Protein backbone atom coordinates (compact mmCIF):
# COMPACT_ATOMS: atom_id res chain seq x y z
CA UNK A 1 0.00 0.00 0.00
CA UNK A 2 2.79 2.47 0.86
CA UNK A 3 5.44 1.26 -1.59
CA UNK A 4 4.37 3.58 -4.46
CA UNK A 5 4.63 6.54 -2.10
CA UNK A 6 8.38 6.01 -1.71
CA UNK A 7 9.45 4.06 -4.81
CA UNK A 8 8.58 4.36 -8.50
CA UNK A 9 10.61 1.47 -9.93
CA UNK A 10 9.95 -1.74 -8.00
CA UNK A 11 8.93 -5.38 -8.43
CA UNK A 12 6.94 -7.44 -5.97
CA UNK A 13 6.82 -11.19 -6.07
CA UNK A 14 5.25 -13.99 -4.02
CA UNK A 15 7.66 -16.56 -2.60
CA UNK A 16 6.10 -20.00 -2.13
CA UNK A 17 6.30 -21.68 1.29
CA UNK A 18 7.69 -18.59 2.97
CA UNK A 19 6.29 -16.48 5.78
CA UNK A 20 7.23 -13.05 7.04
CA UNK A 21 10.97 -13.63 7.50
CA UNK A 22 12.28 -14.19 3.96
CA UNK A 23 15.95 -13.80 4.92
CA UNK A 24 15.64 -16.56 7.55
CA UNK A 25 13.34 -18.92 5.67
CA UNK A 26 14.68 -18.58 2.11
CA UNK A 27 18.07 -16.82 2.31
CA UNK A 28 19.19 -17.97 -1.15
CA UNK A 29 16.23 -16.19 -2.77
CA UNK A 30 16.67 -13.04 -0.68
CA UNK A 31 20.38 -12.81 -1.50
CA UNK A 32 19.74 -13.35 -5.21
CA UNK A 33 17.08 -10.62 -5.36
CA UNK A 34 19.22 -8.13 -3.41
CA UNK A 35 22.24 -8.75 -5.68
CA UNK A 36 20.04 -8.35 -8.76
CA UNK A 37 18.64 -5.05 -7.49
CA UNK A 38 22.12 -3.53 -7.20
CA UNK A 39 23.43 -4.60 -10.61
Q: What is the subunit organization of this protein?
A: single chain
Strand content: under 5%
Percentage of residues in helical conformation: 40-55%
Cα Rg: 11 Å
Q: What count of domains describes the coordinates? A: 1
Structural class: mainly alpha
Q: What's the main sheet like? A: none
Give unreliable regions as ranges.
none
Please tell me what the overall shape is: globular
> What is the chain-wise order of helices and strands?
HHH
Terminus-to-terminus distance: 26 Å
Number of strands: 0
Mean pLDDT across every amino acid position: 91
Query: What is the number of helical segments per DSSP (H or I, 4+ residues)?
Result: 3
Short descriptors:
single chain; 39 residues; mainly alpha; 3 helices
Structural notes for this entry:
The chain is an all-alpha fold and 39 residues long. The chain has one domain (3-37). Helix content is 49%, strand content 0%. It contains 3 helices and no strands. The model has no long low-confidence stretch (mean pLDDT 91).
Short description:
The chain is mostly helical.
Blueprint (SSEs and pairs):
Layout: H1 3-6, H2 22-25, H3 27-37
Keywords: Hydrolase
Protein name: Epoxide hydrolase
GO molecular function: hydrolase activity
Amino acid sequence: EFVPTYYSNYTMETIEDCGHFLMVEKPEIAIDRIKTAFR
